[in-house]
Specification:
Chains A, B: Its main location: cytoplasm. The structure is a homodimer. By secondary structure, the first copy, chain A, is an alpha+beta fold. Chain A is built from 14 helices and 23 strands. The longest helix of chain A is centred in the middle third of the chain and has 21 residues, at about 165-185.
């Protein structure tokens, strides 16, 4: 993309209303604009990041064998009355009356709707195991929306639901989700620690939250520092292998790691003192096993091998897709701006022309820009007539992980500069080598 | 995807509530399920089709230089009061009161919100031309939702907005949209005819609707049959070339083609009698140029070259994304079920195992399935223990354009069958040739 033809409204001033760094940087980098309290438009740069996050979530869910679909945003109140949650949910539920005076609502989650779909079609254990998921906008009418997309009212969430014949099978689904989430967050450059959590209004004894450590996190967390050494990495995993998935769960949850809701001072004290940590964390996902909590009242049963009717065992599993855009920035920025991990960066590299209007420099920039596009790097070319300093500041603010700088002086000796945003480290190399280096970095993504 | 692990709840009976063929077939093929009146869940097969339609729309919009972003579903009423449309819009607007008693609404369209974004950031003609678009769920509280996704209440739409300094520049944006829409529909296997239309509540003198001819269309249309010979095809187009885009508009709009709203009997009578046609059509898109209708009341102005403040010239351009899934079926089906064009088919080919459980046949099926996946064909392998007839009926119903049939008899002579859904035409060939043939068909998509 050529910046002269893009829409990237970066702000010079820091907006007064933004209290945390991700909110400030998303506004300044022209990623989002508030439409009304807690509701945002995703400007082109923000939408690109959101789409990349969404794509990673889709890929990892499908790798785990989970099946994508899409439920609507507006639901009928009837199903929520059936599960008993319509009255429980309180003022956070956005309640709507349509023109025929029917009670509707903007879905904050989808246990009822998915259970209704399941019971309408599935009658036999032979259709199990089954995990369906979708990525859809949700609404929670927060009394005080704040922190930008981190605690908005309209937000994008992946929510998945497993249906299994037995508790054991459902716990395998739980473990499978844990593994797929570890992979998902790592691909986004995040370390998200699974912590034992509280069931809350969704319910359930088995539940883990995934938390990214960050000073601005809303949760207080307590953990054994040994847990931060764990990495899933690029190990192979067979999602059908029950023991293998359980092994990963045990590896990642055997160390003490809890939020303040489930914190146990006595257990915490058992950790060697030098490994005890308390910090703040941002919740970016949660998995639940809740058994027959919805299937029983809603009659989601199947016949088992003996012909008996049994209520299916379910769980639900969420990833905060729009919130992740903020969480990644909280975890990865400096005083100059955002530092995108390669997995979610809106553009793979920035191309900065130091002397716009100089025929040779323009030609060299056009050439490298074309080659980067062909190599799948998806470059952003700053072809505006601006000072070099201003171009660098924009690239630093929007946080592209790599920058190619091209000017008449370097071109004389056939060199361009390749700079890494994270470290500022710069190497000089030929334009073709710069393209090859970047192509290699992005080839695996 | 292996069917034994998929969620494809096909129905044997034709649902009584469905009045038109696309609605019946979408229900029977397990593509959608009604969540409440006019609101649908997109089951896995339906979601795949919807995603493919969405991807084509994105690709063609970006090819034309239009920039993707995303506005929220819930809007504040304030902006609509500013444009004067809050009271005009009537009962079709889903009005919502949030917990702080603020008037909100579920956006039926986005002229106000995008104009607000524009005026907040853009102050100079130098940022023009600019076209922003998004694909987002909309809500129109239809008094009698019907025909499945064709006239639902919650529906997915692509809406794009151009901002230009002059009327001439805005009309180029209009023409550019017309060209990109022709390409978009053709890629979906549709012939959509641009017809002169009525401005309606969005307003504007320049507006064309795109209509797909189909008996179940809600609009009566009148046209010169010569128009159905026109094809955009794979001609190259330079979207920056004003004359070239205008040429396409002239080519595709010079013949008489109107809906009943703008029909002119006298003009129609001028067409040679043998070319006069009246038929029914489904509206799948509309483009508008409306000048300064929103920019003036909302103060969306820029300074021009002389330093004067001028209101920008705008247009808006919509494609009914979810409705297209239904429209494509209306245009392409037979008594056995859907016939997907290759551009939007949920799976590239079906693989039918005629003797599930037979070791050699299973192995041959696994092999061809794996090779088709590797070749990017995205096959659906019916690996269930069902009779051949039932497997064929399912494949015909869900409408995959190609089917590979594998059984012990053919395998003895090293052959499988490749059948084209549209014609029933079958050829015998080696498994590798079948893979190569399908890979070639889908390579260009």
């Amino acid at each position: 993309m050529r910046l002269s033809r893009y829409f990237l409204p970066v702000l010079k001033e820091t907006p007064a209303e933004a209290q945390i760094v991700s909110h400030r940087l998303m506004l300044r980098a022209g990623m989002i604009r508030q439409a009304s309290a807690g509701i945002y438009s995703w400007l082109p740069l923000g939408f690109k990041v959101l789409s990349r996050i969404e794509r990673i979530v889709h890929e990892e869910q499908q790798r785990a064998g989970h099946i994508p679909m899409l439920m609507p945003t507006i639901q009928s109140a009837d199903l929520w009355r059936e599960s008993g949650r319509y009255d429980d949910y309180g003022e956070e539920m956005l309640r709507i009356t349509d023109r025929h005076k029917r009670d509707m609502l903007y879905g904050p989650t989808n246990e009822e709707l998915i259970t209704d779909i399941f019971r309408s079609y599935v009658g036999s254990y032979k259709a199990l195991p089954l995990t369906l998921y979708h990525i859809q906008w949700k609404f929670r009418d927060e009394v005080r929306p704040r922190f930008g997309v981190m605690r908005g009212r309209e937000f994008l969430m992946k929510d998945g639901y497993n249906f299994d014949l037995t508790k054991e099978a459902a716990l395998h689904a739980y473990n499978r989700h844990l593994v797929s989430y570890l992979r998902t967050y790592e691909r986004m450059g995040l370390q998200a620690i699974p912590m034992r959590a509280d069931g809350g209004p969704i319910g359930g004894d088995y539940t883990h939250e995934f938390l990214v450590l960050a000073e601005t996190g809303e949760s207080e967390v307590f953990y054994d520092s040994a847990i931060t050494d764990l990495k899933f990495g690029d190990r192979a995993i067979d999602y059908d292998d029950i023991a293998e998935c359980r092994g990963v769960l045990e590896e990642f949850t055997s160390r003490y790691a809890r939020t303040d809701e489930t914190h146990d001072e006595a257990k915490f004290a058992e950790i060697p003192e030098e490994r005890r940590r308390s910090a703040r964390g941002i919740e970016v996902g949660q998995i639940f096993y809740f058994g027959t909590k919805y299937s029983e009242p809603m009659g989601a049963t199947v016949t088992d091998e003996t012909g008996a009717q049994v209520a299916v065992h379910m769980g639900s599993h969420g990833i905060g897709v729009s919130r992740l855009a903020g969480a990644i920035i909280e975890a990865s920025h400096d005083e100059k701006g955002i530092i995108w991990p390669e997995g979610v960066t809106p553009f793979g590299a920035g191309v900065v022309n130091l002397r716009q209007g100089d025929a040779a420099t323009d030609a060299a920039c056009d050439d490298i820009y074309t080659k980067l596009k062909a190599a799948g790097v998806d470059p952003l070319y700053d072809d505006r007539e601006e000072r070099a300093g201003s171009k660098f500041a924009t690239m630093d603010l929007i946080g592209l992980p790599w920058r190619v700088t091209i000017g008449p002086r370097g071109l004389k000796s056939g060199q361009v500069e390749l700079t890494r945003r994270k470290t500022g480290e710069t190497v000089e190399l030929s334009p073709d080598d710069a393209v090859a280096r970047l192509a290699e970095i992005y080839a695996a993504r």
